[in-house]
């Protein structure tokens, strides 16, 4: 029997990278998973690979109407909702002076507004069954400084997590944040970045970047009853980077 047997989870940004890793692990642990993403081709491919316990729903995470649609599809297919993993996110490798207002608002909508909308609509459904777990994927840049826009929104996710955890505790809904360091995903392999990533890895106490599965195991812990007394907390997976 898996850690998530008969549990139903929504995972945003679930078609590739960490999101896909979370989806695969959740299904292997007995969950029914709703994968959402704007990448329809990759999302449908992953859902087909995972079988009858996974479906794909195309979603713009910054759209309130899309959130309502995702919740409706989740209930129609699987009957209830137990877990939300707010995983979708983007970043720009630009300086303060080069980030446009359009850039900034896009980062805000995908990284921060989506988390608010997801928690609002997921918690509304979870309250009907009297339990739930929400896992918000932030970053080590929700703990220490980094790129403008990305850092801002990831700090906000950390704060939103704590505020929601306090409000939802009486409804038996837990809310925690995960703060990954440098993870081998498409986000950090944009363009010719491999040399820069390899150099940065030398600064990490564990001398390597992480695989997505290493974060997924932490997300699984927070989604499951193994973390039944943890809420409003941040959990870091960074190879010791922020301990320096």
UniProtKB/TrEMBL annotation:
<dbReference type="InterPro" id="IPR036291">
    <property type="entry name" value="NAD(P)-bd_dom_sf"/>
</dbReference>
<protein>
    <submittedName>
        <fullName>Cyclopentanol dehydrogenase</fullName>
    </submittedName>
</protein>
<dbReference type="Pfam" id="PF13561">
    <property type="entry name" value="adh_short_C2"/>
</dbReference>
<keyword id="KW-0560">Oxidoreductase</keyword>
<dbReference type="GO" id="GO:0008206">
    <property type="term" value="P:bile acid metabolic process"/>
</dbReference>
<dbReference type="InterPro" id="IPR002347">
    <property type="entry name" value="SDR_fam"/>
</dbReference>
<dbReference type="GO" id="GO:0016491">
    <property type="term" value="F:oxidoreductase activity"/>
</dbReference>
<comment type="similarity">
    <text>Belongs to the short-chain dehydrogenases/reductases (SDR) family.</text>
</comment>
């Amino acid at each position: 029997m898996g850690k998530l047997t008969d549990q139903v989870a929504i995972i945003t940004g679930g078609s590739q990278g960490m999101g896909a890793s979370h989806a695969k692990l959740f299904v292997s642990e007995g969950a029914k998973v709703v994968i959402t993403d704007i990448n329809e081709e990759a999302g449908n491919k992953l859902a087909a690979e995972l079988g009858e316990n996974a479906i794909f729903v195309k979603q713009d995470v910054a759209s309130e109407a899309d959130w309502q649609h995702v919740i409706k599809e989740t209930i129609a297919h699987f009957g209830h909702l137990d877990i939300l993993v707010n995983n979708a996110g983007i970043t720009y490798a630009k300086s303060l002076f080069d980030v446009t207002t359009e850039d900034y608002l896009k980062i805000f909508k995908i990284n921060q507004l989506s988390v608010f909308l997801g928690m609002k609509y997921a918690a509304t459904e979870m309250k009907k069954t009297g339990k739930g777990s929400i896992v918000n994927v932030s970053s080590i840049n929700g703990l220490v400084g980094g790129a403008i826009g990305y850092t801002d929104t990831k700090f906000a996710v950390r704060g939103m997590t704590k505020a929601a955890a306090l409000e939802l505790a009486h409804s038996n809904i837990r809310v925690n944040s995960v703060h990954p360091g440098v993870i081998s995903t498409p986000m950090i392999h944009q363009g010719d970045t491999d040399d820069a990533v390899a150099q940065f890895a030398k600064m990490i106490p564990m001398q390597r970047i992480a695989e997505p599965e290493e974060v997924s195991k932490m997300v699984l812990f927070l989604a499951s009853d193994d973390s039944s007394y943890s809420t409003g907390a941040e959990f870091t997976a960074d190879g010791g980077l922020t301990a320096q």
